[in-house]
Design goal:
The complex is a heterodimer of chains A (117) and B (109).
Chain A: E1 4-7, E2 10-13, E3 19-25, E4 32-38, E5 45-51, E6 57-58, E7 67-73, E8 76-81, E9 90-97, E10 107-108, E11 112-116
Parallel strand pairs in A: 2-11
Antiparallel strand pairs in A: 1-3, 3-8, 4-5, 4-9, 5-6, 7-8, 9-10, 9-11
Chain B: E1 4-7, E2 10-14, E3 19-25, E4 32-38, E5 44-51, E6 56-59, E7 62-67, E8 72-77, E9 86-93, E10 97-99, E11 103-108
Parallel strand pairs in B: 2-11
Antiparallel strand pairs in B: 1-3, 3-8, 4-5, 4-9, 6-7, 7-8, 9-10, 9-11
Classes of the chains: A mainly beta (117), B mainly beta (109).
C-alpha cells in the first residue's frame, strides 16, 4: 500500500514553454502533498507544501508564479513549471501524506526528470 | 534554522565490511528521523523511521540510532554488499522533512 506515482518520468522541453507534472496517490487519500527539487549530486530541497483544497505554501526563495501547484483532489497534485528555462532543469519529486498539519509518514513518488533546452 | 549534515559525503568499501553513516542536525526539536536510500536517477526508498521517543530501529542488516539531545543519528550497515551501493539520505521530521546532504556509498566486490 501507499503508492505514489508521477507522470511523466522524464520530459524535455524548449525554453519558454510550460511543463506540467502530475503526482498521484494510488491507494490512499493524500491530504497533504509535498514537492521537492533535487539538482545533480545535491540533496532534496522542499519547494512547497499543498493541502487539498487550499493554496500551496511555498518555501522561501521559490517563486509561486513560476511553480504553480494545484491540489484539487485527495489523490492528485500537479506542479506546472511556467516559462521554463535551462536553470529549471532538475529532478522533481513529490511525496504524499495522509494527514495535514502534523508530522506524518510521507510516501515518495519516483521523480520526474525535467530538461529544458 | 534546522540544518542537517551527513558525514562522510562519499564512501567506497569492499564488500563484507560493516559501515557507519553519520547524520547530525542542529535543532533537537524534531518529531522523527528517517533514513532513505536513493539509487541514481530514482526516487527515494524509506529504510528506517525513528520516532523522537525511540533510540533505535532495526531492519535486517540495517540499524539506525537516534540521540536527539546531541543531534545525531547513525545508520549501521552490517556485512555490506554491492547491492547496497546508493546514496543514503537522512531527513529530520518537524512540520516538514529537512534532508541531509547525503552519503554516496559504493561497495565493490
Amino acid at each position: 500500500g501507499a503508492v505514489v506515482s508521477q507522470h511523466p518520468s522524464w520530459v524535455i522541453c524548449k525554453s519558454g514553454t510550460s511543463v506540467k507534472i502530475e503526482c498521484r496517490s494510488l491507494d490512499f487519500q493524500a491530504t497533504t502533498m509535498f514537492w521537492y527539487r533535487q539538482f545533480p549530486k545535491q540533496s532534496l530541497m522542499l519547494m512547497a507544501t499543498s493541502n487539498e483544497g487550499s493554496k500551496a505554501t511555498y518555501e522561501q526563495g521559490v517563486e509561486k508564479d513560476k511553480f504553480l501547484i494545484n491540489h484539487a483532489s485527495l489523490t492528485l497534485s500537479t506542479l506546472t513549471v511556467t516559462s521554463a528555462h535551462p536553470e529549471d532543469s532538475s529532478f522533481y519529486i513529490c511525496s504524499a501524506g495522509r494527514l495535514a498539519g502534523v508530522p506524518d509518514t510521507q510516501y515518495f513518488g519516483p521523480g520526474t526528470r525535467l530538461t529544458v533546452l | 534554522k534546522q540544518e542537517v549534515t551527513q558525514i562522510p559525503a562519499a564512501l567506497s568499501v569492499p564488500e563484507g565490511e560493516n559501515l557507519v553513516l553519520n547524520c547530525s542536525f542542529t535543532d533537537s526539536a524534531i518529531y522523527n528521523l528517517q533514513w532513505f536510500r536513493q539509487d541514481p536517477g530514482k526516487g527515494l526508498t524509506s529504510l528506517l523511521l525513528i520516532q523522537s521517543s525511540q533510540r533505535e530501529q532495526t531492519s535486517g542488516r540495517l540499524n539506525a540510532s537516534l540521540d536527539k539531545s546531541s543531534g545525531r543519528s547513525t545508520l549501521y550497515i552490517a556485512a555490506s554488499q554491492p547491492g547496497d551501493s546508493a546514496t543514503y539520505l537522512c531527513a529530520v521530521g518537524t512540520d516538514k522533512l529537512i534532508f541531509g546532504t547525503g552519503t554516496r556509498l559504493q561497495v565493490f566486490p
